[in-house]
Amino acid sequence: MKKVALILLIVIGAVTIGIRVLGANAKQTPSGVTSVQAQAYQMLSTRSLHSIRLVSAPVIDGDLSDWPAGESISLNRQTAFSFSGQIDSPADLSAIIRSGWDQQTLYFAIGVSNDVIVTDSSDVWRDDGVEIGLDGLNDKDAWGLDDHQYTLVADGRTTDRSVPTGDIAASVATHEGGYDIEVAIPISKLLPGVPISGTVMGFTIGLHDDDDGDNWDAYLIWEGTNTSSSPEEFGSLIFTERLEDRIVALEAKIIQLEQQVQELLAILSEFEELTPP
Ligand SMILES: [Ca+2]
Ligand SMILES: [Ca+2]
Ligand SMILES: [Ca+2]
Ligand SMILES: [Ca+2]
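^ inputs. structure came back:
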């Protein structure tokens, strides 16, 4: 039995060395995106955001410092496909959007620049806030169970197609010059199964600005002319797993396995001490 455990340790050691060699190679890949995923990216005509598989889930508290560096969208008057109203500068209305995922949850981190935050209306679309449009199945049909328009108002209200919802977890933290949003959306609201690297969803994001109360004063949409009923105009959210993150996850599993083997060796040792010669 002890020999079996020692063989296990040798195998784990060899696998660890293999993974570290892979890791060294991964660090030489500049984009962290595999060639197959890069091809998929080139085939899409509208703009895309890569959602990065997260090694650990972020805490949904409005503090974005627990997010890894990664690809982002810069949404402002120059980058928006649709634009309405008066926007004086990026400080009046703009946002940086990132996305991450694991098998259970789709996450967004949204940093909004908005120098005057107003949330005085009962209708969520009249106030400062963010809209996330999702076509989970990417079937370009707007009205399935996979289709959602989540609105996150700067005061923390959360709706799906303007109806208050507790389906998603969201947190807003206001600060000088704007507000930060973290949101966690269950994958079960978007897909019947689990996502894999390469899964594509229809996706766009809208940004409302209210500077003086009552109705909104400006509105930006990243891709498309609305965030609820025209998914054929949406951009794409491409689920991606970076090789370096996969290696980190595998290394964590190996450490766990090593600990289990050590525990097994300790039990074997106790057993041998109890066994009469
Ligand atoms: Ca956080
Ligand atoms: Ca503003
Ligand atoms: Ca759909
Ligand atoms: Ca207004």
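The longest strand covers residues 200-209. Confidence is low (pLDDT under 50) at residues 26-44.
thumbs up if we can close this ticket
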